[in-house]
């Protein structure tokens, strides 16, 4: 197997894996499992499915991501970023459509990994990632307002945010003080523990405390048991998703969205882990693992799997040394299901809404937003457009438009970065004056810079006898730039001007030869002084 498709688990065991590392990984895995237990159920419920499907995702998908992935510390499972897409898919196509879309997304991620596309997916511009993450956070928070305050929606809670706002306003008379108190208690406990005892599992402690308070006081709040009948105490048998050509075609856009977001989210998470540990992940094998994990999750009735930044960071801080910690985290979750499944029925849904409220608040990168606003108007525009489109239109549309705007901004800056300067010389030769004009090109000579360069280069005067194109400062040239150079050279030759091209880059000669311009038509030199000597009739 090629190195860029070799799972990190194999690399770890090649290095030597001893009892001390196993102990460290076991403690880290247990810590992450305690965090993942309430979070997986909360994400599943917010996504419009039953809480057990979130646990199936963390157990099956999380195990496969760690066992087969390209990061030593990546933790896979259901992610808050997917809530919007998953809930929309369930509302349109039901759970069967969701499972099929998840499996199809897995196949797409597999293909992306084997085609070595991982290095390109990481090129998503920073303002786009900050914008769509903040947009998702707003949507998640809005989706939990009803459960947080115990609101009742007679016609059902609408999905789009623009429809949700008036529905929430109309449902305010149904406000439940008990639900708000339980949700508020959960948020306060999480924040206090994070401030006073940051190493403690604040999410689990908050949910357990809220469950005990609600049970002891017999508060009239909805629970997992009252709404879903609890969760099963084990994994279901694997089965293929319902497959039909019509359903596959219908869920194809959803599958593409799952694959795109999954790739971005997992590779960003791996980059975060690299920054915390000094290690380097393998992006292509990470995509392969994500693909297999999504297929595995769908077979067991789970939802979309991706690398999760918060749980991965928790894994690193807890002292994990290898992917074994992620595999053990999944096994610990399975043990929790087998032993404590009946207790899950007592968990209040407002408490899980409080958990997701904190998660959505943490997703907003406030410092990054302020930095982008202070840094550049163009990047602020990319951030704002991505954010607003994610909220009011569609996540995929927001990402695509954001990337397109960032690309246009990049092209504009690169085009401005190309400099074309000229100087004229009178070089005496055989008692005559031979007028020479020298054009120096610096920067990236590509399609975005062609118009500006053409306006300068087209002003070549017929009175000159020598044209020197000093290309030593060109950092990059594409076919559009080469085509402009070829046109300038032909125009000069028609006017009887001798052309000298100064460059030590072979690709420039090759690209000009593709335009039927060869050494007999042009004098190629490696330095400007060599071109000047050639004009004076000296040997190079």
Automatic annotation (TrEMBL):
It is found in: Membrane. GO terms for biological process: transmembrane transport. Its main location: membrane. The chain crosses the membrane at residues 26-47, 53-70, 97-117, 124-145, 165-193, 200-219, 247-273, 285-310, 330-359, 380-411, 437-457. Gene3D superfamilies: STAS domain. Residues 435-535 form the STAS domain. It is a multi-pass membrane protein. Keywords: Membrane, Transmembrane, Transmembrane helix. Pfam families: STAS, Sulfate_transp. PANTHER family: SULFATE TRANSPORTER. This is STAS domain-containing protein. It comes from Rhizobium glycinendophyticum.
């Amino acid at each position: 197997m090629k190195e860029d498709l070799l799972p990190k688990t194999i690399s770890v065991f090649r290095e030597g894996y001893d009892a001390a590392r196993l102990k460290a990984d076991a403690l880290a895995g247990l810590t992450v499992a305690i965090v993942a237990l309430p979070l997986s159920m909360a994400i599943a419920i917010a996504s419009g499915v039953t809480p057990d499907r979130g646990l199936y995702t963390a157990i099956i998908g999380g195990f496969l991501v760690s066992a087969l992935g390209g990061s030593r510390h990546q933790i896979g499972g259901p992610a808050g970023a997917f809530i919007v897409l998953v809930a929309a898919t369930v509302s349109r196509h039901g759970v069967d459509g969701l499972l099929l879309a998840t499996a199809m997304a897995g196949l797409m991620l597999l293909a992306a990994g084997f085609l070595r596309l991982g290095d390109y997916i990481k090129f998503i511009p920073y303002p786009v990632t900050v914008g769509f993450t903040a947009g998702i956070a707003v949507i998640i928070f809005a989706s939990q307002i009803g459960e947080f305050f115990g609101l009742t929606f007679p016609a059902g809670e609408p999905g789009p945010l623009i429809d949700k706002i008036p529905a929430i306003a109309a449902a305010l008379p149904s406000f439940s003080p008990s639900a708000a108190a339980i949700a508020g208690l959960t948020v306060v406990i999480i924040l206090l523990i994070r401030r006073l005892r940051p190493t403690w599992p604040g999410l689990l402690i908050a949910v357990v405390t809220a469950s005990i308070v609600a049970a002891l006081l017999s508060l009239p709040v909805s629970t997992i048991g009252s709404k879903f009948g609890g969760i099963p105490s084990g994994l279901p048998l694997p089965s293929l998703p319902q497959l039909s050509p019509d359903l596959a075609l219908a869920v194809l856009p959803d599958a593409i969205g799952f694959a795109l977001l999954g790739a971005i989210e997992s590779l960003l998470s791996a980059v975060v882990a690299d920054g915390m540990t000094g290690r380097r992940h393998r992006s292509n094998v990470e995509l392969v693992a994500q693909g297999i994990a999504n297929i595995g999750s769908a077979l067991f009735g789970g939802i979309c799997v991706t690398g999760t930044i918060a749980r991965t960071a928790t894994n690193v801080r807890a002292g994990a040394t290898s992917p074994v910690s992620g595999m053990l985290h999944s096994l610990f979750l399975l043990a929790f299901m087998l032993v404590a499944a009946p207790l899950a029925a007592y968990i209040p849904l407002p408490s899980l809404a409080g958990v997701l409220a904190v998660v959505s608040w943490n997703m907003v990168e406030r410092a990054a937003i302020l930095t982008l606003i202070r840094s550049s108007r163009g990047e602020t525009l990319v951030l704002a457009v991505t954010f607003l489109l994610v909220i009011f239109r569609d996540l995929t549309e927001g990402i695509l438009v954001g990337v397109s705007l960032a690309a246009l901004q990049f092209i504009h800056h690169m085009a401005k970065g190309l400099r074309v300067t000229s100087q004229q010389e009178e070089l005496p030769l055989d008692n005559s004056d031979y007028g020479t004009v020298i054009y120096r090109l610096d920067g990236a000579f590509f399609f975005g810079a062609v118009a500006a360069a053409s306006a300068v280069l087209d002003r070549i005067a017929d009175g000159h006898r020598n044209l020197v194109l000093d290309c030593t400062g060109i950092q990059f040239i594409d076919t559009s730039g080469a085509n402009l150079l070829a046109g300038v050279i032909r125009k000069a030759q028609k006017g009887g001007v001798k052309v000298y091209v100064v460059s030590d880059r072979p690709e420039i000669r090759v690209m000009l030869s593709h335009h039927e311009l060869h050494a007999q038509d042009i004098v190629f030199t490696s330095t400007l002084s060599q071109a000047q000597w050639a004009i004076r009739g000296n040997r190079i």
